[in-house]
Amino acid sequence: GAVVSQHPSWVICKSGTSVKIECRSLDFQATTMFWYRQFPKQSLMLMATSNEGSKATYEQGVEKDKFLINHASLTLSTLTVTSAHPEDSSFYICSARDRPSTDTQYFGPGTRLTVL
Amino acid sequence: GEDVEQSLFLSVREGDSSVINCTYTDSSSTYLYWYKQEPGAGLQLLTYIFSNMDMKQDQRLTVLLNKKDKHLSLRIADTQTGDSAIYFCAESDEDNQGGKLIFGQGTELSVKP
């Protein structure tokens, strides 16, 4: 099946710093990638939809200046958490859509962010 | 807005069948999915069903869809301890939401030896 990787798998940073998380589709081209956030024991919350070559579409309540998304190629999307604070600590998961062959979303392994 | 509901916990004995249930509200759902998440990991797609299908079987997994009642279930036959995980039901509406997935809260399946 299609493989999606994320890097790093976990990161610890100081409050006020920025952190970049990469999401790659390894064996297919993804015109659309999605970024989710998951709190412990909770479901996934969609943050934004990222389309290659265009601006990301953010869900209501998600600050686009806080969570910068770039989808510069068909295999790479990045999420940058700017000026991170402890409340940004979470599990961030990306998914990539393998179109046009299928509408299925394939998920990355997730990135655990801890802000001290 | 759209909503997907699941029961939070299910406990079964090894070898028994597990049935995880899900209800959704979006009558325009195009696809319905079941994902598995193990601790500290991402989501693994288990199976999916088109909204115009009633049933889909894939080895130990059987998905039943009652579109009238907006009810989806996942049956795992001969449940093993390795099946212990959180199972998420999700729906997407291709025509109106561009493939955005709406997830349920997840059902934690515990398999006892």
Summarize this, please?
Chain A is 0% helix and 53% strand.
H/E series of chain B, N to C? EEEEEEEEEHEE
Silhouette of chain B? globular
Helix content of chain B: under 10%
Instruction: Provide mean pLDDT of chain B, rounded.
Output: 91
**Largest sheet entry of chain A:** 7 strands, mixed
Pair of chains with the largest interface and how many residues each contributes:
A-B, 22 and 22 residues
Could you tell me the radius of gyration of chain A in angstroms? 13 Å
Low-pLDDT residue spans of chain B: none
What does this 3D model show about the protein?
The complex is a heterodimer of chains A (116) and B (113). Helix content of chain A is 0%, strand content 53%. Chain A is mostly beta strands and 116 residues long. The model of chain A has no long low-confidence stretch (mean pLDDT 91). In chain A, 35% of the residues are buried. In chain A, a hairpin with a 2-residue loop joins strand 7 and strand 8 (76-81). Chain A has strands spanning 4-7, 10-13, 19-25, 32-38, 44-51, 57-58, 67-73, 76-81, 90-97, 105-107, 111-115. Chain A contains no helices and eleven strands. Chain B has one helix and eleven strands; from the N terminus they run βββββββββαββ. In chain B, strands 2, 4, 5, 9, 10 and 11 form a six-stranded mixed sheet that branches. In chain B, a hairpin with a 5-residue loop joins strand 4 and strand 5. Chain B is globular and about 45 Å long. The mean pLDDT of chain B is 91. Chain A binds chain B through residues 1, 4, 6, 32, 34, 42-44, 46, 49, 93, 95, 97, 103-110, 112, and chain B through 30-31, 33, 35, 40-45, 48, 88, 92, 94, 98-101, 103-106.
